Amino acid sequence: MSDEAFRCGAVALLGVPNVGKSTLMNRVIGARVAIVTPKPQTTRHRILGIYSDDRRQIVFVDTPGIHKGSRQLNKNMVRIAYAAAEEADVLAIMQDASKPLDRMTKMLIARFADGRLQQPRIHVLNKVDRADKARLLPRLQQMQQLDPEAKAYVPVSARKGIQTDALLNELTRYLPIQPPMHDPDWFTDQSQRQLAAEYVREQVFLSMHQEIPFQTAVDIERFEEHGDSVDIEAVILVGSERHKPMLIGKGGGGMKAVGTKARLGLEEILGCKVHLNLWVKVDEAWFDHPGKLTDLGLGTD
Ligand SMILES: Nc1nc2c(ncn2[C@@H]2O[C@H](COP(=O)(O)OP(=O)(O)OP(=O)(O)O)[C@@H](O)[C@H]2O)c(=O)[nH]1
Ligand SMILES: [Mg+2]
Fold first, then answer.
1. Has residue 139 got a pLDDT over 60?
2. Which fold, 7-172?
3. Per-residue pLDDT averaged across 148-165, rounded?
């Protein structure tokens, strides 16, 4: 087995919400394929980000943060994350090293360390740019105790790009030797339509507070390409009548800001002019209706 052999496989990015899974994937891919916000539960479905070079193709599988939640949406999100873990070649289990190890992360590490899943595990200690340096070594030792069978424990900063190349090399070691599965020019499985929905949702997450973002979804009603521009009509679903005016804002200012920021981001990733029209619709408890979730691409299959 030569070290030069081409390797290709899937790496599941797993962890509790907000540890930086999507940030890491975007950093490695070099494009904003997954939305990122400071709020937990930002990612709601499985998103592929494909890294290719002349010796490997790493198919990153970004997953929703694993959390407890009683709504159907939350249950689906967690199921999606565990299903992605089962299908991957390597498990990259992420944690926020700038904070003390929380109960949920410990539970998750124990669950993966119990050997139910056979794939190699690599623990990724993220946000080291913000972590107390004196605490890093004890944290690495603690990880070694919690999961002695893991292949590696890698401190990184997804935001700053610290040690991300070292992480790629570590992950590559455990990928199967096989030719690339995807066109190397292809970097995500998301359609332009899905990206549009996600970019709008990102701005809603960034501008809204309390329970509103978690009860919001985006549905693209029209996506039309016209030469060098696209026309998009998107509906923002809110879970309650009283969220509607809060989202629209005074004189429509809130919606206008969401629309402008989402449009600018989309123009960058799509590489063309974008016309974006936004509407708000109330759909009480959409997040608890399995059929509705499937329609929105948030089902489990
Ligand atoms: N300081 C610092 N912040 C980071 C780093 N990586 C991610 N963040 C921030 O952490 C927050 C959450 O990042 P995400 O990438 O959305 O986290 P996630 O794990 O995908 O979260 P969910 O999708 O909710 O599960 C954002 O505000 C990021 O900017 C890092 O290396 N350093
Ligand atoms: Mg995410």
1. yes
2. Rossmann fold (3.40.50)
3. 98
Find the helix or strand (DSSP H, E) in which 278 lies: strand 273-282
* Alpha helix ranges (H) inside 65-132: 72-87, 103-113
Q: How far is the CA of 94 from the centre of ligand 1 (A)?
A: 11
Residue nearest to atom 13 of ligand 1 (CA): 20
Question: CATH 3.30.300.20 occupies which residues in the chain?
Answer: 192-295
CB of 213 shorter than 6 A to ligand 1 = no
Length of the chain (residues): 301
The residues, ordered by sequence, that sit 6+ positions from 159 with a Cβ below 8 Å of its Cβ are: 20, 23, 27, 127, 129
- φ and ψ at residue 48, rounded to 5 degrees: -90, 140
159 Cβ inside 6 Å of ligand 1: yes
Distance 46 CA to ligand 1 centre (A): 16
Q: What confidence tens digit (pLDDT) does each residue in 28-45 have?
A: 999 999 999 999 999 999
Own/partner long-range contacts of 253-261 (Cβ < 8 Å, ≥24 apart): 254/207, 255/280, 257/203, 257/207, 258/200, 258/203, 258/204, 258/207, 259/200, 259/203, 261/203, 261/206
Q: How many CB atoms lie within 10 A of CB 287?
A: 23
- As its CATH architecture, domain 192-295 has 2-Layer Sandwich (3.30)
